[in-house]
Amino acid sequence: MESAERPGAINKRDDEDFQKWLEEMCQKFKCLSPKQQFTTFNAFLQQCSPNQRYSISKTISNILYQDILISLPTELLEQICHYIDTKSLISACCVSKDWNGLISSLTDVWRRKCYQMGIGTVLHNSVNWKVLCLATLKQIEGLHNGSAFHHRDIQATCLSLEQVTGLDYCKGYLIASADDQVGIWRTDDYVLIGLFSVPKRISCLKMQDAKMLVFGHSSGHITTWSLDVCRDSCQASLRREYYGHTGVIMSICLSTEIDLILSGATDFMAKIWCLSTGTLIKTISCHSHWVIQVTLLPALGCVNNRTLYEGKHSLLTKTRDHVRIFSWPKESSDGSKFGDINEVENSVIEIPLNPVHNFCTPGCYVQNGKVSYIKQSMVKDDEDGNAQIVLESLATRTRISEVYLKRKVRKLLAIGEKFALILLPHSHMNKYNLLVIEVSSGNVIGGCHLPHSSSTTPDLAQVVVGETQWLDGLEQLKPHDMVIALGMLNGQIRVVTWRDMKEKLTG
User: Fold this and answer.
1) What are the Cα distances from residue 340, in Å, to 5, 117, 284, 290?
2) Rounded to two decimals, what is the model's pTM?
3) Where in 17-172 does DSSP place strands (E)?
4) Cα angle, residue 66 at apex, residues 60 and 68 outer, rounded to 5°
5) In what helix (H) or strand (E) does residue 171 lie, and over which residues does it extend?
6) Which terminus of the chain is more exposed, N or C, with fewer CB under 10 A?
7) What does DSSP assign to residue 26?
Protein backbone atom coordinates (compact mmCIF):
# COMPACT_ATOMS: atom_id res chain seq x y z
CA MET A 1 0.00 0.00 0.00
CA GLU A 2 1.38 3.43 -1.08
CA SER A 3 2.11 5.87 1.70
CA ALA A 4 -0.11 8.99 1.81
CA GLU A 5 1.38 12.33 0.71
CA ARG A 6 2.22 14.77 3.46
CA PRO A 7 -0.25 17.68 3.98
CA GLY A 8 2.51 20.26 3.57
CA ALA A 9 3.42 18.96 0.15
CA ILE A 10 -0.23 19.09 -0.96
CA ASN A 11 -0.66 22.72 0.25
CA LYS A 12 2.49 23.76 -1.56
CA ARG A 13 1.28 22.16 -4.81
CA ASP A 14 -2.11 23.87 -4.40
CA ASP A 15 -0.40 27.27 -3.93
CA GLU A 16 1.65 26.73 -7.05
CA ASP A 17 -1.40 25.74 -9.05
CA PHE A 18 -3.28 28.82 -7.76
CA GLN A 19 -0.45 31.18 -8.67
CA LYS A 20 -0.29 29.68 -12.17
CA TRP A 21 -4.06 30.00 -12.56
CA LEU A 22 -3.97 33.63 -11.24
CA GLU A 23 -1.25 34.61 -13.69
CA GLU A 24 -3.23 33.14 -16.58
CA MET A 25 -6.38 34.93 -15.43
CA CYS A 26 -4.55 38.28 -15.08
CA GLN A 27 -3.18 37.96 -18.60
CA LYS A 28 -6.65 37.20 -19.96
CA PHE A 29 -8.13 40.08 -17.87
CA LYS A 30 -5.68 42.54 -19.41
CA CYS A 31 -6.85 41.52 -22.87
CA LEU A 32 -10.48 42.33 -22.12
CA SER A 33 -12.11 45.61 -23.03
CA PRO A 34 -12.71 48.14 -20.19
CA LYS A 35 -16.38 47.21 -20.19
CA GLN A 36 -15.60 43.50 -19.99
CA GLN A 37 -13.07 44.14 -17.23
CA PHE A 38 -15.71 45.99 -15.21
CA THR A 39 -18.26 43.21 -15.76
CA THR A 40 -15.74 40.53 -14.71
CA PHE A 41 -14.67 42.46 -11.61
CA ASN A 42 -18.29 43.06 -10.64
CA ALA A 43 -19.11 39.34 -11.07
CA PHE A 44 -16.27 38.35 -8.78
CA LEU A 45 -17.44 40.84 -6.14
CA GLN A 46 -20.95 39.35 -6.28
CA GLN A 47 -19.51 35.96 -5.35
CA CYS A 48 -17.79 37.31 -2.23
CA SER A 49 -19.17 37.09 1.30
CA PRO A 50 -19.95 40.32 3.24
CA ASN A 51 -16.74 39.96 5.27
CA GLN A 52 -14.70 39.57 2.10
CA ARG A 53 -16.36 42.62 0.52
CA TYR A 54 -15.50 44.75 3.58
CA SER A 55 -11.85 43.66 3.43
CA ILE A 56 -11.75 44.36 -0.31
CA SER A 57 -13.24 47.87 0.16
CA LYS A 58 -10.49 48.81 2.66
CA THR A 59 -7.77 47.49 0.36
CA ILE A 60 -9.18 49.27 -2.71
CA SER A 61 -9.58 52.51 -0.75
CA ASN A 62 -5.87 52.54 0.11
CA ILE A 63 -5.01 51.90 -3.53
CA LEU A 64 -7.40 54.42 -5.10
CA TYR A 65 -7.17 57.23 -2.55
CA GLN A 66 -3.50 57.25 -1.66
CA ASP A 67 -2.54 60.79 -0.38
CA ILE A 68 0.36 61.76 -2.61
CA LEU A 69 0.91 65.05 -0.77
CA ILE A 70 1.68 63.33 2.53
CA SER A 71 4.16 61.00 0.88
CA LEU A 72 6.17 63.83 -0.73
CA PRO A 73 9.49 64.96 0.79
CA THR A 74 9.24 68.37 2.49
CA GLU A 75 11.73 69.94 0.07
CA LEU A 76 9.67 68.89 -2.96
CA LEU A 77 6.42 69.96 -1.30
CA GLU A 78 7.89 73.44 -0.70
CA GLN A 79 8.89 73.77 -4.33
CA ILE A 80 5.39 72.82 -5.48
CA CYS A 81 3.68 75.21 -3.05
CA HIS A 82 5.87 78.11 -4.20
CA TYR A 83 4.19 77.85 -7.62
CA ILE A 84 0.64 77.77 -6.22
CA ASP A 85 -1.17 81.11 -5.82
CA THR A 86 -2.05 82.23 -2.31
CA LYS A 87 -5.81 81.67 -2.56
CA SER A 88 -5.36 78.10 -3.83
CA LEU A 89 -2.81 77.40 -1.11
CA ILE A 90 -5.27 78.52 1.56
CA SER A 91 -7.99 76.36 -0.03
CA ALA A 92 -5.62 73.38 0.05
CA CYS A 93 -5.31 73.81 3.84
CA CYS A 94 -9.04 73.10 4.09
CA VAL A 95 -8.83 69.67 2.38
CA SER A 96 -7.90 67.72 5.52
CA LYS A 97 -6.15 68.00 8.85
CA ASP A 98 -3.09 66.30 7.38
CA TRP A 99 -2.88 68.77 4.51
CA ASN A 100 -3.45 71.72 6.82
CA GLY A 101 -0.68 70.57 9.15
CA LEU A 102 1.82 70.00 6.36
CA ILE A 103 1.15 73.18 4.37
CA SER A 104 0.88 75.38 7.46
CA SER A 105 4.34 74.26 8.57
CA LEU A 106 6.00 75.59 5.39
CA THR A 107 7.22 78.87 6.91
CA ASP A 108 9.38 79.84 3.94
CA VAL A 109 6.44 79.42 1.55
CA TRP A 110 4.15 81.71 3.58
CA ARG A 111 6.93 84.25 4.08
CA ARG A 112 7.50 84.45 0.33
CA LYS A 113 3.76 84.80 -0.32
CA CYS A 114 3.66 87.70 2.16
CA TYR A 115 6.50 89.49 0.40
CA GLN A 116 4.87 88.94 -2.98
CA MET A 117 1.63 90.54 -1.75
CA GLY A 118 3.31 93.63 -0.34
CA ILE A 119 4.71 92.89 3.11
CA GLY A 120 7.97 94.73 3.77
CA THR A 121 10.74 93.70 6.15
CA VAL A 122 9.37 92.16 9.36
CA LEU A 123 12.20 92.23 11.88
CA HIS A 124 11.02 89.99 14.71
CA ASN A 125 11.21 86.20 14.37
CA SER A 126 7.96 85.37 16.17
CA VAL A 127 5.78 86.20 13.15
CA ASN A 128 3.16 83.62 12.21
CA TRP A 129 3.60 84.01 8.47
CA LYS A 130 0.48 82.09 7.56
CA VAL A 131 -1.71 84.31 9.79
CA LEU A 132 -0.01 87.40 8.37
CA CYS A 133 -0.56 86.05 4.85
CA LEU A 134 -4.31 85.57 5.50
CA ALA A 135 -4.63 89.10 6.92
CA THR A 136 -2.70 90.58 3.98
CA LEU A 137 -4.87 88.73 1.48
CA LYS A 138 -8.01 90.16 3.09
CA GLN A 139 -6.45 93.63 2.96
CA ILE A 140 -5.55 93.22 -0.73
CA GLU A 141 -9.10 92.08 -1.52
CA GLY A 142 -10.42 95.13 0.37
CA LEU A 143 -8.14 97.41 -1.65
CA HIS A 144 -9.30 95.78 -4.87
CA ASN A 145 -13.03 96.15 -4.26
CA GLY A 146 -12.78 99.47 -2.38
CA SER A 147 -14.11 98.13 0.92
CA ALA A 148 -10.78 98.84 2.68
CA PHE A 149 -11.57 102.57 2.60
CA HIS A 150 -13.96 104.46 4.87
CA HIS A 151 -15.26 107.84 3.65
CA ARG A 152 -16.55 110.68 5.77
CA ASP A 153 -17.24 114.38 5.19
CA ILE A 154 -16.23 117.03 7.72
CA GLN A 155 -18.27 120.21 7.69
CA ALA A 156 -15.65 122.95 7.69
CA THR A 157 -18.10 125.82 7.28
CA CYS A 158 -16.54 127.31 10.40
CA LEU A 159 -13.75 128.42 8.03
CA SER A 160 -15.55 129.74 4.98
CA LEU A 161 -18.42 128.99 2.64
CA GLU A 162 -15.84 128.92 -0.13
CA GLN A 163 -13.40 126.14 -0.97
CA VAL A 164 -10.93 124.82 1.59
CA THR A 165 -7.68 125.82 -0.08
CA GLY A 166 -4.94 124.33 2.10
CA LEU A 167 -4.55 121.12 4.08
CA ASP A 168 -1.85 119.41 6.10
CA TYR A 169 -1.63 116.39 8.41
CA CYS A 170 0.76 115.83 11.30
CA LYS A 171 0.76 113.24 14.10
CA GLY A 172 -2.98 112.82 14.57
CA TYR A 173 -4.05 116.34 13.62
CA LEU A 174 -5.61 117.69 10.42
CA ILE A 175 -5.24 121.39 9.69
CA ALA A 176 -7.19 123.30 7.03
CA SER A 177 -7.22 126.87 5.74
CA ALA A 178 -9.66 128.94 3.71
CA ASP A 179 -8.73 132.53 2.86
CA ASP A 180 -7.36 133.85 6.19
CA GLN A 181 -9.01 131.32 8.52
CA VAL A 182 -7.50 128.17 10.03
CA GLY A 183 -9.13 125.13 11.67
CA ILE A 184 -7.51 122.17 13.45
CA TRP A 185 -9.18 118.76 13.97
CA ARG A 186 -7.95 115.75 15.93
CA THR A 187 -8.10 112.69 13.66
CA ASP A 188 -9.23 110.04 16.15
CA ASP A 189 -12.79 111.45 16.00
CA TYR A 190 -12.44 114.56 13.72
CA VAL A 191 -13.64 116.99 16.37
CA LEU A 192 -12.69 120.64 15.77
CA ILE A 193 -10.34 121.73 18.57
CA GLY A 194 -8.97 125.01 17.21
CA LEU A 195 -10.11 127.94 15.07
CA PHE A 196 -8.32 131.24 14.47
CA SER A 197 -7.64 133.92 11.85
CA VAL A 198 -4.37 135.25 10.39
CA PRO A 199 -3.66 138.69 8.90
CA LYS A 200 -3.19 137.65 5.25
CA ARG A 201 -4.72 135.10 2.86
CA ILE A 202 -3.04 131.69 3.15
CA SER A 203 -1.75 130.04 -0.03
CA CYS A 204 0.01 127.01 1.56
CA LEU A 205 0.75 125.68 5.04
CA LYS A 206 2.82 123.16 6.97
CA MET A 207 2.56 121.77 10.49
CA GLN A 208 5.60 120.57 12.47
CA ASP A 209 5.26 118.08 15.35
CA ALA A 210 1.86 119.53 16.30
CA LYS A 211 3.80 122.38 17.95
CA MET A 212 4.37 124.85 15.16
CA LEU A 213 2.59 126.12 12.04
CA VAL A 214 4.13 127.92 9.11
CA PHE A 215 1.99 129.68 6.50
CA GLY A 216 2.87 130.89 3.03
CA HIS A 217 0.69 133.85 2.06
CA SER A 218 -0.59 135.21 -1.24
CA SER A 219 1.14 138.49 -0.38
CA GLY A 220 4.54 136.74 -0.64
CA HIS A 221 5.43 136.72 3.05
CA ILE A 222 5.64 133.87 5.56
CA THR A 223 4.43 133.61 9.15
CA THR A 224 5.20 131.06 11.86
CA TRP A 225 2.86 130.30 14.77
CA SER A 226 3.32 128.42 18.02
CA LEU A 227 0.67 125.85 18.92
CA ASP A 228 -0.52 124.90 22.36
CA VAL A 229 -2.45 121.67 21.76
CA CYS A 230 -4.37 119.61 24.28
CA ARG A 231 -7.16 117.06 23.94
CA ASP A 232 -10.06 119.47 23.52
CA SER A 233 -8.51 122.77 22.51
CA CYS A 234 -5.71 124.37 20.53
CA GLN A 235 -4.36 127.91 20.86
CA ALA A 236 -2.10 129.59 18.28
CA SER A 237 0.16 132.62 18.75
CA LEU A 238 2.22 134.48 16.13
CA ARG A 239 5.97 133.88 16.43
CA ARG A 240 7.64 135.60 13.50
CA GLU A 241 7.13 137.06 10.02
CA TYR A 242 9.49 136.63 7.05
CA TYR A 243 9.60 139.07 4.14
CA GLY A 244 11.45 138.66 0.85
CA HIS A 245 9.35 136.99 -1.85
CA THR A 246 7.64 139.12 -4.49
CA GLY A 247 5.18 136.44 -5.60
CA VAL A 248 2.64 134.05 -4.12
CA ILE A 249 4.16 131.38 -1.89
CA MET A 250 3.50 128.04 -3.62
CA SER A 251 5.17 125.61 -1.23
CA ILE A 252 6.80 125.68 2.16
CA CYS A 253 8.79 123.29 4.36
CA LEU A 254 10.55 123.57 7.70
CA SER A 255 12.84 121.68 10.04
CA THR A 256 13.11 122.66 13.70
CA GLU A 257 16.09 120.30 14.06
CA ILE A 258 18.28 122.39 11.75
CA ASP A 259 16.43 125.69 12.36
CA LEU A 260 15.46 126.29 8.71
CA ILE A 261 12.46 127.23 6.60
CA LEU A 262 12.44 126.60 2.84
CA SER A 263 9.97 128.39 0.57
CA GLY A 264 9.16 128.46 -3.15
CA ALA A 265 7.10 131.09 -4.94
CA THR A 266 5.79 132.44 -8.24
CA ASP A 267 8.73 134.87 -8.36
CA PHE A 268 10.87 131.93 -9.64
CA MET A 269 12.78 131.93 -6.34
CA ALA A 270 13.43 129.43 -3.56
CA LYS A 271 14.54 131.00 -0.31
CA ILE A 272 16.14 129.57 2.82
CA TRP A 273 15.39 131.28 6.14
CA CYS A 274 16.58 130.91 9.69
CA LEU A 275 13.52 129.70 11.55
CA SER A 276 14.38 131.20 14.93
CA THR A 277 15.57 134.65 13.83
CA GLY A 278 13.68 135.27 10.57
CA THR A 279 16.93 136.03 8.73
CA LEU A 280 17.05 135.32 5.00
CA ILE A 281 20.09 133.05 4.63
CA LYS A 282 20.10 132.16 0.94
CA THR A 283 18.15 132.83 -2.24
CA ILE A 284 18.28 130.17 -4.97
CA SER A 285 17.58 131.97 -8.21
CA CYS A 286 18.41 129.41 -10.89
CA HIS A 287 14.76 128.58 -11.65
CA SER A 288 13.04 129.56 -14.88
CA HIS A 289 9.46 129.15 -13.68
CA TRP A 290 7.30 129.03 -10.57
CA VAL A 291 8.76 126.94 -7.77
CA ILE A 292 5.77 124.70 -7.02
CA GLN A 293 7.39 122.26 -4.58
CA VAL A 294 10.15 122.53 -1.99
CA THR A 295 11.32 119.78 0.37
CA LEU A 296 13.95 119.83 3.12
CA LEU A 297 15.98 116.64 3.62
CA PRO A 298 18.02 117.14 6.80
CA ALA A 299 20.71 114.69 7.87
CA LEU A 300 19.76 114.13 11.51
CA GLY A 301 22.66 111.95 12.66
CA CYS A 302 21.05 108.63 11.70
CA VAL A 303 20.55 107.02 8.33
CA ASN A 304 16.96 107.18 7.17
CA ASN A 305 15.21 106.77 3.84
CA ARG A 306 15.10 110.51 3.25
CA THR A 307 18.79 111.26 3.86
CA LEU A 308 20.67 111.54 0.57
CA TYR A 309 24.27 111.81 1.71
CA GLU A 310 25.93 111.00 4.99
CA GLY A 311 27.02 114.18 6.70
CA LYS A 312 25.05 116.49 4.38
CA HIS A 313 21.73 118.28 4.44
CA SER A 314 19.78 118.47 1.18
CA LEU A 315 16.82 120.27 -0.34
CA LEU A 316 14.65 119.68 -3.36
CA THR A 317 12.93 122.22 -5.60
CA LYS A 318 10.52 121.48 -8.44
CA THR A 319 9.25 123.65 -11.26
CA ARG A 320 7.30 122.65 -14.35
CA ASP A 321 10.55 121.96 -16.22
CA HIS A 322 13.14 120.79 -13.64
CA VAL A 323 13.72 118.95 -10.41
CA ARG A 324 16.80 120.27 -8.63
CA ILE A 325 18.49 118.79 -5.58
CA PHE A 326 21.03 120.81 -3.58
CA SER A 327 23.29 119.57 -0.77
CA TRP A 328 25.66 121.15 1.76
CA PRO A 329 27.78 119.95 4.73
CA LYS A 330 25.89 119.74 8.01
CA GLU A 331 29.04 120.82 9.90
CA SER A 332 30.21 124.42 9.71
CA SER A 333 33.07 126.44 11.16
CA ASP A 334 30.71 128.71 13.13
CA GLY A 335 28.81 125.76 14.65
CA SER A 336 25.41 126.78 13.26
CA LYS A 337 22.56 124.26 13.31
CA PHE A 338 22.01 124.46 9.59
CA GLY A 339 25.65 123.76 8.61
CA ASP A 340 27.79 125.37 5.91
CA ILE A 341 24.88 126.55 3.77
CA ASN A 342 27.15 128.76 1.61
CA GLU A 343 28.03 125.52 -0.21
CA VAL A 344 24.42 124.86 -1.19
CA GLU A 345 24.77 125.87 -4.85
CA ASN A 346 28.14 124.18 -5.39
CA SER A 347 26.64 120.70 -5.75
CA VAL A 348 23.35 120.57 -7.59
CA ILE A 349 21.67 117.72 -9.44
CA GLU A 350 19.33 118.81 -12.23
CA ILE A 351 16.67 116.48 -13.65
CA PRO A 352 14.95 117.94 -16.75
CA LEU A 353 11.22 117.18 -17.02
CA ASN A 354 10.79 118.33 -20.64
CA PRO A 355 7.25 119.74 -20.24
CA VAL A 356 4.89 120.60 -23.08
CA HIS A 357 3.67 124.21 -22.71
CA ASN A 358 2.51 124.69 -19.08
CA PHE A 359 1.57 121.05 -18.61
CA CYS A 360 3.27 119.38 -15.65
CA THR A 361 2.38 116.72 -13.08
CA PRO A 362 2.95 117.58 -9.40
CA GLY A 363 4.51 115.21 -6.90
CA CYS A 364 8.22 114.47 -6.47
CA TYR A 365 9.79 112.40 -3.67
CA VAL A 366 13.22 111.35 -2.47
CA GLN A 367 13.88 108.12 -0.60
CA ASN A 368 16.77 105.67 -0.28
CA GLY A 369 18.92 107.62 -2.73
CA LYS A 370 16.20 107.70 -5.41
CA VAL A 371 14.05 110.50 -6.75
CA SER A 372 10.58 109.60 -8.04
CA TYR A 373 8.30 111.67 -10.26
CA ILE A 374 5.63 111.37 -12.98
CA LYS A 375 6.47 111.74 -16.65
CA GLN A 376 3.59 112.11 -19.11
CA SER A 377 2.56 114.17 -22.13
CA MET A 378 -0.73 115.83 -23.03
CA VAL A 379 -3.33 113.65 -24.76
CA LYS A 380 -6.87 114.26 -25.93
CA ASP A 381 -9.77 113.86 -23.52
CA ASP A 382 -10.96 110.65 -25.20
CA GLU A 383 -7.49 109.06 -25.27
CA ASP A 384 -5.80 106.90 -22.68
CA GLY A 385 -2.96 108.53 -20.79
CA ASN A 386 0.72 107.65 -21.10
CA ALA A 387 1.96 108.41 -17.59
CA GLN A 388 4.87 106.59 -16.07
CA ILE A 389 6.53 106.71 -12.66
CA VAL A 390 10.22 107.41 -13.14
CA LEU A 391 12.77 106.40 -10.48
CA GLU A 392 16.29 107.79 -10.82
CA SER A 393 19.42 107.09 -8.78
CA LEU A 394 20.95 110.25 -7.35
CA ALA A 395 24.31 108.56 -6.79
CA THR A 396 24.82 107.39 -10.39
CA ARG A 397 22.39 109.88 -11.99
CA THR A 398 20.90 107.07 -14.03
CA ARG A 399 17.33 105.96 -14.48
CA ILE A 400 16.57 102.90 -12.34
CA SER A 401 13.15 102.08 -13.72
CA GLU A 402 10.10 103.41 -15.54
CA VAL A 403 6.76 102.10 -14.30
CA TYR A 404 4.21 102.43 -17.11
CA LEU A 405 0.70 103.25 -15.87
CA LYS A 406 -1.08 103.71 -19.26
CA ARG A 407 -3.42 106.35 -17.82
CA LYS A 408 -3.61 110.08 -17.03
CA VAL A 409 -2.28 111.08 -13.63
CA ARG A 410 -3.23 114.22 -11.74
CA LYS A 411 -0.61 113.88 -8.99
CA LEU A 412 1.86 111.43 -7.53
CA LEU A 413 0.65 111.68 -3.93
CA ALA A 414 3.20 109.44 -2.21
CA ILE A 415 5.54 106.56 -2.99
CA GLY A 416 7.31 103.89 -0.94
CA GLU A 417 9.37 100.78 -1.55
CA LYS A 418 6.32 98.62 -2.34
CA PHE A 419 3.46 100.89 -3.39
CA ALA A 420 2.65 104.32 -4.82
CA LEU A 421 -0.50 106.37 -4.21
CA ILE A 422 -1.67 108.36 -7.23
CA LEU A 423 -4.59 110.67 -7.95
CA LEU A 424 -6.26 110.55 -11.37
CA PRO A 425 -8.45 113.22 -12.97
CA HIS A 426 -11.99 113.18 -11.58
CA SER A 427 -14.53 110.89 -13.25
CA HIS A 428 -18.30 111.31 -13.02
CA MET A 429 -18.78 107.56 -13.56
CA ASN A 430 -17.69 106.54 -10.05
CA LYS A 431 -14.53 105.00 -11.42
CA TYR A 432 -11.58 104.75 -9.06
CA ASN A 433 -9.51 107.94 -9.21
CA LEU A 434 -7.42 107.22 -6.11
CA LEU A 435 -5.19 104.26 -6.98
CA VAL A 436 -2.72 102.10 -5.09
CA ILE A 437 -0.02 101.01 -7.56
CA GLU A 438 2.52 98.23 -7.15
CA VAL A 439 5.85 99.97 -7.79
CA SER A 440 7.67 96.94 -9.21
CA SER A 441 5.07 96.17 -11.90
CA GLY A 442 2.77 99.18 -12.27
CA ASN A 443 -0.23 96.95 -11.56
CA VAL A 444 -3.24 98.53 -9.87
CA ILE A 445 -3.74 96.88 -6.46
CA GLY A 446 -6.95 98.77 -5.68
CA GLY A 447 -8.41 102.15 -4.90
CA CYS A 448 -11.60 104.14 -4.48
CA HIS A 449 -13.59 107.01 -5.96
CA LEU A 450 -13.10 110.54 -4.65
CA PRO A 451 -15.22 113.63 -5.33
CA HIS A 452 -13.86 116.47 -7.43
CA SER A 453 -11.52 118.93 -5.72
CA SER A 454 -10.52 122.05 -7.70
CA SER A 455 -6.83 122.90 -7.73
CA THR A 456 -5.86 125.82 -5.51
CA THR A 457 -2.14 125.69 -6.42
CA PRO A 458 -0.18 123.80 -9.12
CA ASP A 459 0.94 121.39 -6.38
CA LEU A 460 -2.67 120.73 -5.21
CA ALA A 461 -2.35 122.31 -1.76
CA GLN A 462 -5.97 121.31 -1.04
CA VAL A 463 -5.01 117.61 -1.00
CA VAL A 464 -2.99 115.96 1.78
CA VAL A 465 -1.91 112.38 2.43
CA GLY A 466 -2.01 110.85 5.94
CA GLU A 467 0.27 108.14 7.30
CA THR A 468 2.45 106.65 4.55
CA GLN A 469 4.45 103.86 6.26
CA TRP A 470 2.17 101.26 4.62
CA LEU A 471 3.69 102.16 1.24
CA ASP A 472 6.83 100.30 2.38
CA GLY A 473 4.88 97.24 3.54
CA LEU A 474 1.24 96.43 4.30
CA GLU A 475 2.14 95.12 7.76
CA GLN A 476 2.49 98.80 8.73
CA LEU A 477 -1.09 99.65 7.71
CA LYS A 478 -3.15 100.56 10.76
CA PRO A 479 -6.97 100.60 10.82
CA HIS A 480 -8.55 104.07 11.17
CA ASP A 481 -5.37 105.90 10.06
CA MET A 482 -6.00 108.68 7.56
CA VAL A 483 -5.26 107.81 3.93
CA ILE A 484 -6.09 111.15 2.28
CA ALA A 485 -8.10 114.35 2.79
CA LEU A 486 -9.41 116.75 0.15
CA GLY A 487 -10.70 120.29 0.50
CA MET A 488 -13.88 120.87 -1.49
CA LEU A 489 -16.46 123.53 -2.19
CA ASN A 490 -19.04 124.70 0.35
CA GLY A 491 -16.70 124.28 3.28
CA GLN A 492 -16.38 120.49 3.18
CA ILE A 493 -13.43 118.19 3.68
CA ARG A 494 -13.60 114.60 2.44
CA VAL A 495 -11.53 112.32 4.65
CA VAL A 496 -10.67 108.74 3.70
CA THR A 497 -9.42 106.38 6.43
CA TRP A 498 -8.50 102.70 6.53
CA ARG A 499 -11.32 100.39 7.49
CA ASP A 500 -10.60 97.62 9.98
CA MET A 501 -10.95 94.60 7.66
CA LYS A 502 -11.06 92.13 10.59
CA GLU A 503 -13.93 94.12 12.08
CA LYS A 504 -15.71 94.12 8.73
CA LEU A 505 -15.36 90.38 8.28
CA THR A 506 -16.63 89.53 11.75
CA GLY A 507 -19.30 92.24 11.90
Assistant:
1) 116, 44, 15, 27
2) 0.82
3) 149-155, 166-170
4) 165
5) none
6) N
7) H
